[in-house]
User: What shape does this take?
Amino acid sequence: MTEVTIQPGVPHAAVRVRRARPRALLAGLAIALVTVSAISVGIGAVRISPAQVVAITVAPAGISLPVSYDEAQAVVLRSIRMPRIVLGMIVGAALALSGAVLQGLFRNPLVDPALVGVSSGAALGAALLIVLGGPLVSTLPTPLALAALPVAAFVAALVTTASVFRIASVRGGTDVVLMLLGGIAVNALVGAGIGLLAYVAPDAQLRQFTFWTFGGLGGATWASLAVVAPLCGLAAIGLMRLARPLNALLLGESEAGHLGVPVEQVKRRAIALTALAVGAAVSVSGVIGFVGLVVPHLLRLVIGPDHRALLPGAAILGALLVVVADLIARTLVAPAEMPIGIVTAAVGAPCFIWLLVHTRSTWGHA
Amino acid sequence: MIVARGVFYRTGGRTLVSDADLRVGAGEVVAVVGPNGAGKSTLLRMLGGELKPSSGNLRLHGRPLDDWAPGERARARAILPQHSALSFPFTVRDVVRLGRMPFDGAGGEHAVDAALDRTEMRRLESRLYPTLSGGERQLVHLARVLAQLAGEDGSPAGRLLLLDEPVAGLDPAHQHRVMAIAREEAARGAAVLAVLHDLNLAAQYADALVVLHGGRVVRSGRAADVLTSEMVRLIFALPAIVVPHPCFECPLVVAHPHAATPRLEEISL
Assistant: This one.
């Protein structure tokens, strides 16, 4: 027998975590977003230098800078590029923020806004309108006809999410596992509906719908922004206020209740507000994949799971990612334009695989 | 501090807790014991306000538990759960800080430090929670609960501490450390109720034992009165002899396969 010397109370090897300071990171991301947007807005068929961008932007305020530009540049910037980039920011922020909230709510880092039926619902609404709504739309005056597609997508998104929520409601509470399973079932049903519509659709409409599902910011106008921005803005304010309750919810629903969190109210708010934000965003942009899944996950690795930093961070990083993806989508195959959903998936999926492979050893089997 | 009278809990056609009476006063540690499925956790969750009794009366500080707003309740009692779903990479300190949620404002970091020190988790405060062992996680949650119980003034006086199997998964030294902390909290004015499986731990640390069986309170009182070999055999289906503790004034339960035979009973007594 060998004797082992016992040292009482041997301390653990000090494994310290190195995490970025959230405030510095948020500031850095915000600066990056402004910079990339200012550059991106000048890139395209009509070149506009950053100085010209500034000059054109401040001109309506009566400030005239010593930078020359022609009127065509000003028109392109004001009525095409700017709404497009602002829409990109809103959509990216809405998707990533909603993803971060839902991942916290379900205590599952693999949850994506699509899971509660928002995205598939929006796609069904779009398919219904594109394939069957043609005769109806042709009777409408032009502004209403343009709004018909986003409205159909938005309404269908909310109806789908509400039905997932109904399935998961038990005795005044909401069962999270039931919600995930209900989401899968409803998504399958909606998928069948979309498939059927695609099957009966003539080629032209099939192509229009397929492009819509890839997502794109080409439909951005100041008019559509005037509708989407307030909806997403209100939802975002409401979602940010859930940061502290969401932190407690990571402990479990009972434990959050022990800490005084009104759990049911928080769950209902989180679902309703994410449906509103994502529904409004995808109704104009179409489905843009992976932003809602990857952005919060990535950020959590850098600054940790505290939602007080995670939620604003996800909104900014999501906006940044979509603006960059849109820049790639409209310049890579210029003068043609690639659907942005292809870019985010092509960039997002490998990032996600890399992340899974590098974190799989820490996956909760400890 | 907390009083339960004639409390029932029924769900899905089954009665999990039946006509339970119980009271825990400030300065007291009460241990709830009983075999698996006796309704211990259900009773604890009702006392914490998480489950509503089907019938009966629950009062905290003389006020019906239903009348307390969730936030108010969170400032008056803390609950250590049996398991936690936490899997996100909070640091240990962040987890303990969550206990301060009901109290927005001052004294927070001090209470967090004190809780980390008492549970010996200070040295792990920057570790990520998912990298801890099961026992360490349990202690982190105890620290979180202590930080909550400390209130604004750093004192648990007048607050209720509910512990659901607080020593499960801990080594013997830490089991005693946790029970000693429960005693300290009581000495500082808290009312403590702990669900325990270890009868000897209950006998050594609790002022009173409540024995639950099939949802009913079948015995309650001082350990010396409650813990008898007959009770242990009948309620826990465990043949055992009960002898006086060699050091403390409490009984000591020793499981013994032949304890049920009359001769050994006679010898042991």
